[in-house]
Amino acid sequence: MKDKAEITEKVQLYFDSMYESCPQKVKEVFHPHAKITGYMQEKLFEQSVDDFASFVAAQQPSAKEKKEPKDLEILSIEIAGNTAVAIVRDKYIGLSFLDSLSFLKVKNKWVIYNKLFHVEA
Q1: Which residue of 24, 26, 67, 72 is 20 to 30 Å from 9, comparing CA positions?
Q2: What integer pLDDT is reported at residue 61 of this predicted model?
Q3: With 90 as the cut, is the pLDDT of residue 1 above it?
Q4: pTM of the full predicted structure?
Q5: Quick count: other Cβ atoms within 10 Å of Cβ 99?
Q6: Under a CB-based contact definition with an 8 Å cutoff, are residues 98 and 69 in contact?
Q7: H or E element in which residue 15 lies
Q8: Is pLDDT of 10 > 90?
Q9: b/e per residue, 49-80, with b = 16+ CB within 10 A?
Q10: Residue 76 has pLDDT above 80, yes or no
Q11: Which long-range contacts (CB under 8 A, 24 or more apart) does 117-120 make?
Q12: H-helix or E-strand containing 48?
């Protein structure tokens, strides 16, 4: 149960990083070698953590500053040893995303190693 609670906290930190347009939180929750990948408007979108942190920081004013409602739903968390996958649905930049967040436990700390996203219609 401890691992699931920690992963749930990391999912919240991931969402907060976007909601607050906070690049520091992006870098805290993602492994430095992680990739952020998915399709937007039928175009493949691939970013490093630094690219994603810059993208998040550029969303000004932040959703928090605009007082947008928080919209995050954790659909599932599956843990296998020192790996895990969380499937989450969230609203960000006016779009609904279905994210697959792959986690690794590194030095006894859970971090997102990859994010695959799907923009829902």
Answers
A1: 67
A2: 96
A3: no
A4: 0.94
A5: 22
A6: no
A7: helix 2-19
A8: yes
A9: beebbebbeebeeebeeeeeeeebebeebeee
A10: yes
A11: 117/36, 117/37, 117/38, 118/38, 118/39, 119/38, 119/39, 119/40, 119/41, 119/95, 120/89, 120/95, 120/96
A12: strand 43-48
